[in-house]
Amino acid sequence: MDTFSSWGPYLILGMFFTPFGALKLYGFCRGYEGGPGKGPWERLRAGSCAEEHSAIAPRWRLPFFLALDVYFLAMGLFCLFRAYHAVNPS
Fold it and tell me: Residue 34: exposed, middle, or buried by beta-carbon count in 10 A (0-12, 13-18, 19+)?
């Protein structure tokens, strides 16, 4: 088993980004939009920014936020995978 410094950061990042990415992807699929004036929970689960507050062109807004949400989820799962294989090499 490796030291904590080889698998700990991956575990911490994975434990944060996996549920964060899943929550963002859930909000994107359900159509939740964030922006100023919304509560912390609404901003956290928002899959995209409201159109009037977004600086991204309307044509690229939904693909951008979808890619960002999937990236958060994939990064979290990758970090958990790395942490698991650092602890259990085989």
Answer: buried
pLDDT for 40-78, tens place per residue? Answer: 888 888 888 877 778 888 899 889 999 999 999 999 999
pTM (predicted TM-score): 0.86
CB 6 within 8 A of CB 19: no
CA–CA dist 13, 77 (Å, integer): 9
Q: How far apart are CA 34 and CA 6, in angstroms?
A: 36
In this structure, which amino acid lies at residue 29?
C
Rounded-to-integer distance, Cα 60 and Cα 18, Å: 25
